[in-house]
Amino acid sequence: AQVLGLVGESGEVAEKFKKLIRDKQGALSDDDRKEIIKELGDILWYVNAVAVLLGSSISDVAETNLEKVLSRKARGATHGSGDNR
Predict the structure, then answer these.
(1) How would you classify residue 55: left for phi > 0, otherwise alpha for psi between -120 and 50, otherwise beta?
(2) Tens digit of pLDDT per residue, the chain (85 long)?
C-alpha cells in the first residue's frame, strides 16, 4: 500500500503542475505553492514508509542518494542515463 500511496501522491504533484501549465501558463501563486508543498510532504511520508518497509529510513535513503550523486560527479558520470552510472 505504501508504494501505491507514493505513486498516487507523486501523480497529484504532477497533476497540479499540469494544471498550472494548462490553466495559468505556468504562473505559480502563493496558494499553488502551498498546495504543492503539502503534497510534497505527503510524498516524504510515503518515501519514509517505503524505506521502513525495506528495513531502512528516510535518512539512509538520503545519505545513499548523496553518496551516489557525489560519486557520479567525481567520476564525471553525471550525464547520460542508467541507474548505475
Answers:
(1) left
(2) 999 999 999 999 999 999 999 999 999 999 999 999 999 999 999 999 999 999 999 999 999 999 999 998 888 877 666 666 4
Q: pTM for this structure?
A: 0.79
What are the grid coordinates assigned to 23, written together?
Answer: 490553466
3-state SS assignment for residue 16 = helix
Q: Return the C-alpha cell found at 71.
A: 560519486
On whether the CB atoms of residues 36 and 16 are closer than 8 A, the answer is yes
CA–CA dist 60, 62 (Å, integer): 5
What contacts 24+ positions apart, CB below 8 Å, involve 10-19? 10/43, 12/39, 12/42, 13/39, 13/40, 13/43
Q: How far is Cα 77 from Cα 68, in angstroms, rounded to an integer?
A: 10
